[in-house]
């Protein structure tokens, strides 16, 4: 998946785009790790039951130029994409995703717009 300026996950209520004021130090302060090629990556396990180890892996990667990003939600192994917004069975995981993304919006890493 290529880097995009705006990402809309299937069935998600919001579109996300990079905030124009995003800075590299802001990414590092918010637990984005710098990869070997210079991109910034945030990985979180979205779990219905905290510390259970069962959930879906959220991975956000911002390119080194801060001009594009990608968001993937996969199974725990990271191999298959998962749509957590498809069914209400994942309501708790959806709320955790929105909470995390809202915190990144507050810190001016992303902007969100309703779909």
UniProtKB/TrEMBL annotation:
The lineage of its organism: Bacteria, Bacillati, Bacillota, Bacilli, Lactobacillales. It comes from Streptococcus sinensis. InterPro entries: Amino_acid_metab_prot_put, Lp2179-like_sf. This is Cysteine desulfurase. It comes from the Bacteria.
């Amino acid at each position: 998946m290529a880097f995009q300026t705006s990402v809309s996950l299937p069935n998600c209520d919001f579109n996300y785009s990079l905030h124009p004021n995003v800075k590299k130090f802001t990414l590092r302060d918010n637990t984005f790790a710098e990869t070997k090629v210079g991109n910034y990556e945030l990985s979180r396990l979205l779990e219905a039951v905290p510390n259970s180890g069962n959930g879906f892996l959220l991975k956000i990667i911002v390119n080194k130029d801060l001009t594009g990003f990608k968001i993937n939600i996969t199974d725990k192994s990271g191999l298959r994409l998962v749509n957590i917004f498809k069914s209400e069975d994942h309501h708790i995981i959806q709320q955790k995703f929105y909470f995390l993304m809202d915190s990144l919006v507050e810190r001016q890493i992303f902007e969100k717009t309703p779909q």
